[in-house]
Amino acid sequence: MTLSRTNKQASLPCPAWVWASGSNIHTAKDRSWFGDDYMPFESYVRSADGSELKVIGIGNVTLLTKVSPNKTGPRSHSTLRLTDVLHVPSAICNIIGVPILEGYNITTRGVEGNITDLSDGRSVAYFKRQMEGARNFEIRLSGPPIGPKVGPSPFNPSNIYWIHASWPDSERERFAAAQASRQPAAGASLDLAPSEKTWLKKHFQSEFRFLQIYGLSVFREEDREEGRTILRTIMAHSEDGASESKKSDGFDFETR
């Protein structure tokens, strides 16, 4: 492997989003997972061994996910929204903590499992099949061009990992005070900018077609709002914000 290829892989975001039932917060290693509402904020979380890991920011994350190992095509993709995610670059992986249960239900069966929306029971993600004896449930992300390019797994199959993050109440209160003193950031759901509309038309032809891919309707404003968030997530993870070499007609939904 060449040095340039190694450096390129190292710059890609960590792919592992692990369900950690003992964690009271979500964490992400890479800035690129966050949206427009990202807020720099210094804090810390405690890991499984009690050590403190530095937090440098907080925001919401929208993950582009596969809903089932048995589905293909446009409806095999969905989104998973995580709120108040801490940016922890030194963590071994990304963590999904118990706050997810406020909007989703998690079911695990042996070495498999899935995540469903509490509001309608719809499947939004599933966990990759684990090897017997493995302790960690990792969600299956949508691959490119629907999802972002990601780096290699941080895990060694021969090792056992204890995944945990705890954010002290005192730090939560400090963040709440800091947040209250700031002007709210511009919402990520504002109407699309001209450059975003151009990118959408180039890669998906129309908003109608783009929303169809995610089972959303152009006739429902809440669906259009969700679509804008998804679009911005895709653009944030694509090379230079608009992959020049890929158009929607070339999207391989069957194999991602």
TrEMBL record:
InterPro entries membership: PolX-like_BBD
Biased composition (Basic and acidic residues): 237-256
Residue numbers spanned by region Disordered: 236-256
Domain of life, source organism: Eukaryota
Retrovirus-related Pol polyprotein from transposon TNT 1-94-like beta-barrel domain location: 17-100
PANTHER family, sorted: CHROMO DOMAIN-CONTAINING PROTEIN
Name of the protein in question: Retrovirus-related Pol polyprotein from transposon TNT 1-94-like beta-barrel domain-containing protein
Highest classification ranks of the organism: Eukaryota, Fungi, Dikarya, Ascomycota, Pezizomycotina
